[in-house]
Design brief:
single chain; 309 residues; alpha/beta; binds dihydroflavine-adenine dinucleotide
Length: 309
């Protein structure tokens, strides 16, 4: 029951001010976010890549309401890619972007504003030998995001997409995207979606995940299994074996700070394991979605408000 309340709070400016101002918040946020700025995030990235894990970096931000902020997002990603080039991390690190942070939902041409900016990011990513993955946000943005993907893939065929198994449409989208060279991260989905477009029951979301996973593994693309769910991870490994896929023709992905022992286990087994590393000052929405996913996280967060004994 708490999940929907937290997901609503994730979009509330009032809650944002209260949560962000609480002095006890920061240590809890640090469990999920690699730092307020690029420098501390790079320390985390180095530790991960040195231990054999790959990363995808997310400069936190979403739902921008003006063009200047949208352009600032683009500039932050260009700076990030220049740093990855200078640090020679291009073969281990890619970037994940949320198009709403590039202006996708701005009235009067938001889609084109986002496309124009993210194209510059994709150009530089290709130049330094890495890739961009387009995160997927709420269902109202899916058509626009997939249209941006098609456009980017003309010049940058390795641009990645994200599909969310809670959406009814996702099996069809998975079929359409299971083509040669197509990188697709499959996740369950992290937004509050109505029953008209999305499965509400966890079991149905999981079944839909397995159906789309089968399609992606049987196809010619590059599946990216974005989940911490041990059952789905085992099924993905079975599908990889059944479809005679060698390690490196698919990968697993997990979020920074979540199930780190499992991240290690899969990498030690020889699987390609990529960690999604978010950083930046605008951590509120991301953080609240992580609380909503797991009641234990919320309990941990609330306990930190209790006076020290
Ligand atoms: P599930 O929620 O069932 O969790 C399985 C187990 O994992 C739990 O029992 C617990 O042990 C652990 N776990 C999961 N979440 C946890 C948490 N927050 N804290 C502590 N433990 C946790 N969504 C989206 O809508 N658009 C996107 O672009 C992305 N991108 C993305 C990238 C990557 C790399 C990942 C791994 C996930 C996303 N997501 C996402 C989020 C995704 O939709 C989903 O909300 C979370 O991954 C949680 O779902 P699981 O598949 O892990 O299963």
């Amino acid at each position: 029951m708490l999940g929907p309340v937290l997901l609503a709070a994730a979009r509330s400016d009032r809650m944002r001010r209260v949560v962000a101002a609480a002095p006890v918040t920061r240590p809890v946020v640090n469990r999920f976010v690699a730092g307020d700025a690029l420098d501390p995030a790079l320390t985390a990235v180095r530790a991960l890549t040195d231990s054999g894990l790959d990363v995808t970096l997310d400069h936190l931000g979403e739902d921008v309401t003006d063009r200047a902020t949208a352009h600032a997002t683009r500039d932050a990603y260009l700076r990030l890619l220049e740093t990855l080039r200078d640090e020679k991390l291009g073969d281990r690190a890619e970037v994940s972007v949320k198009l709403s942070a590039f202006g996708q939902t701005l009235p009067d041409g938001g889609h084109d504003i986002a496309l124009e900016s993210v194209r510059q990011v994709a150009d530089l990513a290709t130049e330094i030998g890495t890739t961009v993955t387009l995160d997927m946000e709420d269902h109202t943005t899916v058509d626009s995001t997939l249209a941006v993907l098609r456009e980017l893939r003309r010049a940058h065929p390795r641009t990645g997409a994200v599909l969310q198994s809670y959406l009814f449409r996702t099996e069809d989208d998975a079929r359409a995207l299971a083509t040669e060279g197509s990188r697709v991260r499959l996740v369950k989905g992290a937004y509050r979606e109505p029953a008209s477009v999305a499965f509400q029951d966890k079991k149905d979301v999981d079944r839909s995940y397995v159906r789309s996973l089968r399609t992606l593994f049987a196809g010619d693309g590059y599946p990216m299994v974005g989940s911490h769910d041990p059952r789905l991870i085992a099924i993905a490994q079975e599908l990889a074996a059944r479809n005679h896929r060698a390690a490196g023709t698919y990968e697993f992905q997990m979020l920074y700070g979540i199930r780190t022992a499992e991240q290690r286990r899969l990498a030690d087994e020889g699987e390609r394991m990529r960690i999604y590393v978010p950083y930046g000052a605008d951590w509120y929405g991301y953080f609240m979605r992580r609380l909503a996913e797991r009641p234990a996280n919320l309990a941990f967060f609330l306990r930190s408000f209790a006076p020290a004994r």
